[in-house]
Design brief:
The structure is a single chain. The chain is α/β, with parallel strands linked by helices. It has a domain at 4-114 and 189-254: Rossmann fold (3-Layer(aba) Sandwich), CATH 3.40.50.1820. Helices cover 44% and strands 15% of the residues. It is built from 11 helices and 7 strands. It has helices at residues 32-35, 61-74, 87-98, 118-137, 140-147, 158-168, 173-182, 191-197, 211-221, 238-241, 243-254, and strands spanning 4-7, 14-18, 40-44, 80-85, 103-109, 202-207, 227-231. The chain has a 7-stranded mixed β-sheet, sandwiched between helices. α3 links the parallel β4 and β5. α2 crosses α3 (87-98) and α4 (118-137) packs antiparallel against α7. The longest helix has 20 residues, at 118-137. The protein is globular.
């Protein structure tokens, strides 16, 4: 079962927060003093991260969506707001697909909606396999150093990158590998179809300096009804770069 930490009055509406690849439930700490005044915040470790040792099947999205949804419902929240960053957002899309009635709203932060063509999916699987081989064969710190050199993390300076590497080095590389392979973007369902059929409010938050996802957001908006919110002075990880602004945006959207 996903490991959980909870913050805020249990009588408040529930907000489930799902971190990104290499992260943990602790990643939301800077946002929680504000968010927990308005929501009962439920922060969850994804499989292979933090304290969660669950091994997923491949592909693992449906099993993970079921596990998280049932866990939250068993806490006493048959409906909840859902917020996911990057990988967590891609997991959130599958919760929206398989358990749409459970969602009060869906908020995606820098999350890919999925690839549409079989060719693109196969290309991505090959790309991810190369990263999987690096994760399996190299020391974790070496893998992390290469991972955080990707263009999507260009906003990180050397100190911030080194700090992240130190934190992420505490993970179990074998557990990370299982999660990475079972949740590849090449295995993900088409999130555009999911959003078209979803009746609750849905939002996409992107960083002002995240060129890749800003461009993707523009393309997605041409195809589906999706509210896009740009967080100033931030890159891919907006809740880390601008936690107060990020939290204020979430509250403004869900408490208009």
């Amino acid at each position: 079962m996903p490991t959980i930490k909870r913050y805020g009055d249990t009588a408040l509406p529930a907000l489930v927060l799902l971190h990104g690849f290499l992260g943990s439930k602790e990643d939301w700490q800077a946002c929680l003093p504000t968010l927990s005044q308005y929501f009962h915040c439920i922060c969850i470790d994804l499989p292979g991260h933090g304290e969660n040792e669950q091994i997923l099947p491949t592909p693992g999205f449906e099993a993970l969506a079921d596990t998280i949804t049932h866990q939250v419902i068993n806490l006493g929240y048959p409906q909840f707001h859902l917020l996911g960053y990057s990988l967590g957002g891609r997991v959130a899309l599958h919760i929206a697909k398989f358990h749409p009635a459970a969602l009060l709203s869906l908020m995606l932060e820098s999350a890919h909606l999925g690839l549409c063509s079989t060719r693109d999916k196969q290309t991505r699987l090959k790309h991810d396999q190369k990263w999987a081989e690096k994760l399996a064969s190299k020391p974790l710190r070496t893998f992390l150093s290469e991972w955080y050199q990707q263009p999507v993390f260009a906003e990180l300076n050397n100190d911030a990158r080194e700090q992240l590497i130190n934190i992420r080095s505490k993970n179990n590389p074998q557990a990370l590998l299982h999660c990475f392979q079972s949740t590849s973007l090449g295995l993900q369902d088409n999130g555009q179809k999911v959003l078209k059929q979803l009746h609750c409010p849905r939002y996409l938050l992107v960083g002002e300096n995240d060129n890749k996802f800003s461009n993707l957001a523009e393309k997605w908006q041409q195809k589906i009804d999706l509210s896009v919110i740009t967080i100033p002075h931030s890159g891919h990880n907006t809740h880390k770069a601008q936690p107060k602004m990020f939290a204020a945006s979430v509250i403004q959207l869900l408490y208009p």
